[in-house]
Amino acid sequence: MFIEPHLGHHSDNRAGWIEVICGCMFSGKTEELIRRLTRALIARQKVEIFKPILDNRYHTEKIVSHNDRAIRSTPVNVAGDILLLAGDCDVVGIDEAQFFDESLVDVCNTLANSGKRVVVAGLDMDYTGKPFGPMPNLLAVAEFVTKVHAICAQTGELASYSFRLNASDSRVMLGERDVYEARTRRSFVEGMRRKTEGKEKEE
């Protein structure tokens, strides 16, 4: 389990940093984000939390995990809005980071350089198994990286891939267990192969 380097009240000469929580669908990323931010609130730190406005699966404003844990947040259109709204807080939480553009990396660096603790959660790979949005560059600049795993729906083993069950080729598609499965590498590759064979037969 991740242990926070510092939970006391910040001083005027505070040092900031970036934490990234990444993994596939159903791996507990948001759950871990909420856990860390809740601990910061218990420590009486000032916390501001943000998510992309398009993520309205469970609630238009709150961040909600698959296990129904929730915490308040502010939906934003673009990463730059986070800089405008973070104010004088100690901790900034950001969920579904993969849906933001590359400017999120500069935003997180700016926040950390100003002395804030920045906690970011997001999918590290899209439904094709490729790095997703700004996540690779966030992983590169973060001081702390936690990769969490789900359980493969096919084998029951540890899973790190998000397999899309339908035939859509849209990179961004919100969905739950009716749209995605967590899979191991082998199960993911096999599923993608079958999808490709199915398309070839249709053609």
Provide a brief overview of the structure:
By secondary structure, the protein is of the alpha/beta class. It has five helices and twelve strands.
What does this protein look like?
The protein is α/β, with parallel strands linked by helices. It has a domain at 17-148: P-loop containing nucleotide triphosphate hydrolases (Rossmann fold, 3-Layer(aba) Sandwich), CATH 3.40.50.300. Helix content is 28%, strand content 24%. The chain has 5 helices and 12 strands. The strands form 4 sheets. A 6-stranded parallel β-sheet has the order 5-2-6-7-1-8, sandwiched between helices. Strand 9 (150-151) and strand 10 form a beta hairpin. Helix 2 runs parallel beside helix 3 and helix 3 packs parallel to helix 4 (135-141). The longest helix is centred in the last third of the chain and has 18 residues, at 185-202. The radius of gyration is 18 Å and the shape is elongated. The model has no long low-confidence stretch (mean pLDDT 89).
